[in-house]
Write a structure and sequence with these properties.
137 residues; mainly beta; 2,3-Dihydroxybiphenyl 1,2-Dioxygenase, domain 1; four-stranded mixed sheet; globular
């Protein structure tokens, strides 16, 4: 896998130019999870090669690596709970929330409006929680 170049590679010559490309989420069944993230959340499958399966949005940066727990090494376990992964939803969040509910998707928190934004917490088939947040762009 070739690392993309960064527009500000020379901005700080004494510091490395870094960014986050992916984050791993532990799953029981990579194929089931790939289908869930694609079919329920609308992600694209960005990579699908043996162990390296990632989902995200083409051209939008960042991806989730669906790491099958049985391949993660001795002692690896599922890690259900808040992943801290923030997923933006274009437009109003409530219609997306309602559609996902009708489709049987689980939530740990319904749509909540705060001064800093509107969000909810969706739960994948392995108990990983992601924050769905209304995009302001």
């Amino acid at each position: 896998m070739t690392a993309p170049t960064h527009a500000n590679a020379n901005a700080h010559p004494n510091k490395p130019t870094t960014w986050i490309e992916s984050t791993a989420v532990m799953v029981q069944d990579r194929e089931r999870s790939k289908a869930w993230y694609r079919d329920q959340l609308g992600f694209d499958v960005l990579s699908d090669s043996d162990h390296w399966v990632t989902v995200g949005r083409k051209g939008r940066g960042g991806q989730i690596h669906l790491c099958q727990v049985s391949e993660a090494g001795k002692g690896a376990t599922l890690e259900p709970g808040n992943t801290g992964i923030l997923v933006y939803v274009r437009g109003e969040l409530h219609p997306t929330y309602e559609r996902l509910l009708r489709d049987g998707v689980k939530f740990s928190q319904g749509v909540t409006k705060m001064p800093w934004g509107t969000y909810c917490m969706v739960v994948d088939p392995d108990g990983n929680e992601l924050i769905l947040m209304e995009a302001t762009e």
